Structures are given as C-alpha cells and as structure tokens.
Amino acid sequence: MNNTGTSLILQVVARFLLPMLLLFSVFLLLRGHDEPGGGFIAGLVASTAFALHLFAFDAAQTRKLIGIDSSYLMGGGLIISLISGLIGVVQSGSAYLSAVWWYVNVPGLGELKISTPLIFDIGVYLVVTGMVTTLLFSLAQLEE
C-alpha cells in the first residue's frame, strides 16, 4: 500500500487502462450512428475510465485529470445536443432533430461524413460522462 491507501498494482493498471478506455470510448462514439455504439455507451466507458482512476488515486487527482468541472460537461453536452436539433430546422426548414449531413475532404484521409446525429451523440457523451463522474465524486465525498 502507498500513502493514498490503495494498491500500487491498481495504480499501475489504472494508468495503463485509462488512455485505452478513453480511446475505446471515442471509437464507440464515432461509430455509433452507423453501428452499435453511440454517445450513451461511449460516455459510460469514459466514466468507467475515470472511476478506475478515482479508485486507484483520489477525487482531487481525478478532478485534475478531467480538467473541467463535471457539471460543465453536463451543461455543455446538453447545449450541444439541443443545438444539433436546431440545425435541421434552420438549414432546411424541416422538423427538430432532422439529420443534416456534410461531406468534408481532408487531405490524406479522404472524405469525412459529419452529421447532426454525430453532434447530438457528442452532446450525449458529454452529458453522460459529466453525470456519472458527478455521481462518483459525490460518493467519494461521502467516504471522506
């Protein structure tokens, strides 16, 4: 055991798994509108990464790792999701949450599809990540 009361093995594993879990969450987010995945499950995987870090270290270090207050993640994600629904209304006069697609040529990568469903999923990702990490920080505060 070290000075934070957790195992050195858990800390090493957390440092190893955190970037891989976050990368996997981005993978799930980006493939979500075409295949199984999306903002909700990707946000849960990202939250799992932060939960593992919280268990291995402490709430202060995990907050520092996230770099932004989790309530801002929730609020920002909600705003992004709401705005994504308005794009279809403004651009084509169709119903709220109508899908709009843009095709962007990126040198070296080719053509990328950017869409309002992806923007909506990003908002959901931030809301879920913010909500779960807020819950985890609240539970960690009860423990102290």
Automatic annotation (TrEMBL):
Give residue ranges for domain Na+/H+ antiporter MnhB subunit-related protein. 9-134
Q: Which InterPro entries match?
A: CPA3_antiporter_subunitB, MnhB
Q: Name one Pfam family in it.
A: MnhB
Q: How does it sit in the membrane?
A: Multi-pass membrane protein
Q: Where in the cell is it found?
A: Cell membrane
Q: Which GO terms describe its cellular component?
A: plasma membrane
**Keywords, ordered alphabetically:** Cell membrane, Membrane, Transmembrane, Transmembrane helix
Please give the name of this protein.
Answer: Na+/H+ antiporter subunit B
Q: Which organism is it from?
A: Vibrio amylolyticus
